[in-house]
Amino acid sequence: MTEFPPLSLNVPKPECRPGDTPDFSGVDIPTAGTVRRPDVDTRAEDMRDLAFTIIRVLDDNDEAVGEWAGTLSDEDLARGLRDMMTLRIYDGRMMLAQRQGKTSFYMQHLGEEAISCAFQKALQKGDMNFPTYRQAGLLIASGYPMETMMCQIFSNEADPLHGRQLPVMYSSKEHGFFSISGNLATQYIQAVGWSMASAIKGDTKIAASWIGDGSTSESDFHAALVFASTYKAPVVLNIVNNQWAISTFQGIARGGAHTFASRGHGFGIPALRVDGNDYLAVHAAGKWAAERARRNLGPTLIEHVTYRAGGHSTSDDPSAYRPKTENEAWPLGDPITRLKTHLIKRGVWSEERHKQAEAEIADSVIDCQKRAEAIGTLNSGQAPSPRDMFEDVYAEMPEHLIKQRHEVGY
């Protein structure tokens, strides 16, 4: 009788823990400009290599190179830089406001600003994003009023969602930003369904879904890929791989796959892997995928390779599970610094102009904050009326809710 050794499980482990020296040697980064740009109608099986590399436009000399370059003008890039700066300054003010007790909760985008700000510019009015809680740049890049965002953060009377969502879970149909779900991954299948409905109606609008690397382990992620693949839905399926799902490193959710993008090939979906800290690369990949969807060629999966520089949220302490200096070791750099340096090299930006822009944006954000705080914050000012708990839910309010509303005096 053949004897076998005892069975054992493979439990993936991160490269380093608190106190260790950060190590990103396992991240294979190709030379910028070397990754090919296939025709939009290329079959998934003919572009498998793009799921295992990283599309990069900005090289080590901060020049835009390769076939993916040239999708944006200098004016567009300068506007994109301001969008990213605005998001970062907004984040800083709201993080401070949370520490001051003016809001209950906040989640910042530090290091990931290029992804949402650049991708939004690849969409058209009427397209719909189905985001997670770390894509506020979609709103900023589309012109959503910052004061309105802050009123929701502060849970005051002007909160457009009347306290029915967590502070960072925005919603705006006009700006193509579907209501965020606190249940992870549900938005993925919703985006596919929305895009299918657009196709059924013979419309021209496409959808974009968003998910973090950790949430790809949820069943809705796989269900979305089945439907998108089967019906060739006009949707762009974005995965933001920022290396950490709260305190769990990406190796757990990735499973045995080499990359998250490669999962698309199991469903016959074309997949791209892009430098998420390169504004130009994110826009180029997003524009390629959006055109594919708009030409009725089906879905595209995009993995944005980036790094979450801050904590998962204001309730998280990343120093408990990763080295404090890991952010500084991230090899793809800072998205704002990279784009700023590129524009300076092109002669359309300067250090002086950058400082002036920072000051102007900071003043604008502070002015918005003052106006929002004048209405109220979590612990002061005008709070939403308890009546809001009962209104805007049913066309005709049922008897039991009428009774409850009367019991609280409304």
Could you please describe the fold and organization of this structure?
Helices cover 36% and strands 9% of the residues. Strands 1-2-3-7-6 form a five-stranded parallel sheet, sandwiched between helices. The chain is of the alpha/beta class. Helix 6 (219-231) links the parallel strand 2 and strand 3 (235-241). It is built from twelve helices and nine strands. The mean pLDDT is 96.
Feature tags:
410 residues; alpha/beta; five-stranded parallel beta sheet; two-stranded antiparallel sheet; 12 helices; 9 strands; 36% helix; globular
Q: Rg to the nearest angstrom?
A: 22 Å
Low-confidence stretches: none
Note the run of SSEs as H and E.
Answer: HHEHHHEHEEEHEHEHHHEEH
The description of the largest β-sheet is:
5 strands, parallel
Derived from helix and strand composition plus strand pairing, the structural class reads alpha/beta
What spatial form do the alpha-carbon principal axes imply?
A: globular
Distance between the termini: 79 Å
Largest sheet: spatial strand order: 1-2-3-7-6
How many E strands?
9
- Helix percent reads 25-40%
Strand content: 5-15%
Number of helices: 12
The chain-level mean pLDDT equals 96
Secondary structure: elements and pairs:
Elements: H1 74-99, H2 113-120, E1 128-130, H3 137-141, H4 146-154, H5 186-200, E2 207-212, H6 219-231, E3 235-241, E4 244-245, E5 248-249, H7 250-254, E6 271-275, H8 279-294, E7 300-305, H9 326-329, H10 335-345, H11 351-375, E8 376-377, E9 380-381, H12 399-407
Parallel strand pairs: 1-2, 2-3, 3-7, 6-7
Antiparallel strand pairs: 4-5, 8-9
Helix pairs in contact: 1-2, 1-10, 1-11, 2-8, 4-11, 5-6
